[in-house]
Amino acid sequence: MAYLFGDRRHFDFLHFGSHPIHRDLPLYPAFALNLPERLLASDFMTEPEKSTVRLELEEANAYDQYLLHSSAEISAVLRNAMKQGCMVTVYFDMGRSFFLTSLLEVTANGIVLDYGSDESINRQALQAKRLICTMNVNRVKVQFGIAGVRLAQFENRPAFASALPEQLLRLQRREFFRVSTPIIKPLYCELPMPALEGEETMLQLPLLDISAGGLALMVTTRQARLFVHNQIFNDCLLPLPNEPAIHLSLRVCNLFEITNRAGNRYARVGCEYLELAGMPLNQIQRYITHLERERKARENGLA
Questions:
Q1: Which DSSP helix (H) or strand (E) runs through 81?
Q2: Distance between alpha carbon 185 and the CA centroid of its chain, in Å?
Q3: Triad 168, 142, 221: Cα angle to 5°
Q4: Taking the alpha carbons of 118, 17, 107, 24 in that order, is the dihedral positive or negative?
Q5: What is the DSSP string of 107-172?
Q6: Contact by Cβ (8 Å): 238, 245
Q7: 50-75 burial by CB neighbour count: b if 16+ within 10 A, else e?
Q8: CB count, 10 Å around CB of 16?
Q9: Domains in the chain and their CATH numbers?
Q10: Is 236 in contact with 192 (CB distance < 8 Å)?
């Protein structure tokens, strides 16, 4: 059995389009590589691998109690997201295509979104009749639909403009509560990977965040080629502090690239647990509670 380890890095400047987003984000690449080619979020899925993602907004009957219809309330949620610099994932073509962006402006008449980094995807988005935007605001899952976008200018740069959404979905459920994992003592997840001559390699990857519904892994751009949308990894191992190691299966939900201000590129792999319940789920929930208590203690100057 072989393991791939890496050291820790800290980045504070991301690019998700033509406008930069400042953020403190712990990254843990297993090994560093400088590749000449540029990887885009859409590059991680080939055409046969693309499939419709689940968007709760399209199941309005099941989530009606979480919908906002007041334009004032919708504007307030979007302005809050804009002030926090929340990332926005915009899906179209029945969820088979998407790009990453951020809110640049929110007014009573509409919204302005950052222009995407892939011109081909931008052209497709401009032709789409309906787009679904999803993001997390203060650990609350937020989704809203817009009836098309048009090309606009914002601070002398290209941008997408649209009317204010007519409704907005806010999902605040336990499984969506997500916490960042420690930087100094990172948490790792071990995934089985096929190797030459039938040998199995365990790839040990650091976590970026964790919730009761899934986790996010930080990988290099080369390692990202090992992951595809909807891919399932069985027999994974998640060792938690002061807890028995958890054996679990993971499904890849999303992959996207992160670029730091030095120009180095890494990827975030978002995964969900498959059929995880009982004691293992309780262990994860206890760990999340522990992390939250530590965070609050630090904020109050008690740690």
A1: helix 71-84
A2: 22
A3: 140
A4: positive
A5: -SSEEEEEPPS-HHHHHHHHH-S-EEEEEEETTEEEEEEES--EEEEETTEEEEEEEPPS-EEEE-
A6: yes
A7: beebebebbeeeeeeebebeeeeebb
A8: 24
A9: 3-49+176-299 (2.40.10.220), 56-173 (2.30.110.10)
A10: yes
Adjacent-strand bridge partners of 180 = 209
**In angstroms, what CA-CA distances link 49 with 15, 44, 46, 239?**
26, 9, 5, 30
Q: Based on the number of CB atoms within 10 Å of its own CB, is 274 exposed (0-12), middle (13-18) or buried (19 or more)? A: middle
The answer to whether 271 touches 250, Cβ cutoff 8 Å, is yes
**Nearest to residue 141, comparing CAs of 222, 188, 81?**
81
Q: Is 275 left (phi over 0), alpha (psi -120 to 50) or beta?
A: left
Candidates 79, 83, 93, 85; CA nearest to 16 is: 85
Give the long-range contacts of residues 134-137, CB within 8 A, separation 24 or more: 134/55, 134/57, 134/88, 134/89, 134/91, 135/81, 135/86, 135/87, 135/88, 135/89, 136/86, 136/176, 136/178, 137/77, 137/80, 137/81, 137/84, 137/86
Task: Fill in the amino acid letter for 184.
Answer: I
Amino acid at 48: P
Question: DSSP 3-state helix, strand, coil percentages of the chain (rounded to 5)?
Answer: 20, 45, 35
Nearest of 237, 290, 207 to residue 26 by alpha carbon: 207
Question: Tens-of-pLDDT digits for all 303 residues of the chain?
Answer: 433 333 333 333 344 444 444 334 344 344 333 433 433 433 333 333 334 456 777 765 656 777 889 999 999 999 999 999 999 999 998 878 899 999 999 998 899 999 988 899 999 999 999 999 999 887 788 999 999 999 999 999 999 999 999 999 887 665 556 788 887 888 999 999 876 556 678 899 999 889 888 899 989 988 998 999 889 999 999 999 988 999 999 999 888 887 756 777 788 898 989 988 788 888 988 888 888 888 888 877 765
